[in-house]
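User: I'm putting together notes for a lab meeting next week and I want to include a structural view of one of the chains we've been expressing. I don't have a solved structure, so I'd like a prediction I can at least talk through. The sequence is below, exactly as it appears in our construct file.
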Amino acid sequence: MSNGHFTLLSDRTVLALSGAEVRDFLQGLVTSDVDKLTPEHATYAGLLTPQGKILFDFFLVQHGEAIWLDCAAGMAADLKKRLTFYKLRAAVEIEDMSGTLGVAALWGADKPFGLEEAGAATTLVGGVAFTDPRFGKAGARVIAPADALAALLSEQGCEAASQDDYHAHRIALGLADSVHDIGSGEHFPHECNFDQIGGVDFKKGCYVGQEVVSRTEHRSNARKRLLPMAFDNAAPETGTDISGNGKSVGQITSSAGRHALGLIRLDRAQSALDAEGGLSAGEQPVALRKPEWARFDVPGAA
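Assistant: Thanks for the context. Below is the predicted structure for the 302-residue chain, given as structure tokens.
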């Protein structure tokens, strides 16, 4: 394995779900197909409002008989509360593993832990390693005892990097962050590209918010998308408005270096480009980019 970089993600934590009914419980709640989850295959999913908006997004991995949710640390308490609300009398236990388990991201390595395909997983001593189910080039993630995580990755020949380095990596790939880009209760799955990166299984049974998601998919009417973009100079800060042809086209949700992610109204962006006025943010021209994983057209992108 060639050397890569790793980051200890202090803004992520793990909820451990166990019990005889844990799979049926999650299957009726989340957007991905939990029946496909195995010790060798991880997945990415969301928990929605009944109106179909994303409350939480997370990675799911199997460890022994338990299912671990790699989620935003700042949202873990609310996620646990929401899961407990749905649990009722189901035989399911939910434990916050903060301080016990840590999460790390690893990128730039060749087949980390022998894994290659997106979502491939393997069991470690006390933990799990898996390639990012959303897009294989994002690298791998590792969940392991917090006090041993850095040493485990250093032993793999990986070099420590900062969380800013990781965010620059995922922004360049067009992958959203739970807090910075997705938030809670603000966006629909299609707007955050769940339909493109395996975050929704359209063949599974019912789950909370499923009717809205299915309707959007069948009508092919996702008007907004989170998109990566490039700038000639340092990208404007989060919250900067993106405009074109005298109208607001979107807003930057996260940025790093000369790259950023933003939620873009596709039809308005296309109209602005057709009018040859272009797009701008913070007095800089905006160049929208089409991610490698995208199966939809991006206005102005080659």
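A couple of points you could mention at the meeting. The chain is about 20% helix and 30% strand. The longest strand covers residues 54-63.

User: Perfect, that's what I needed.
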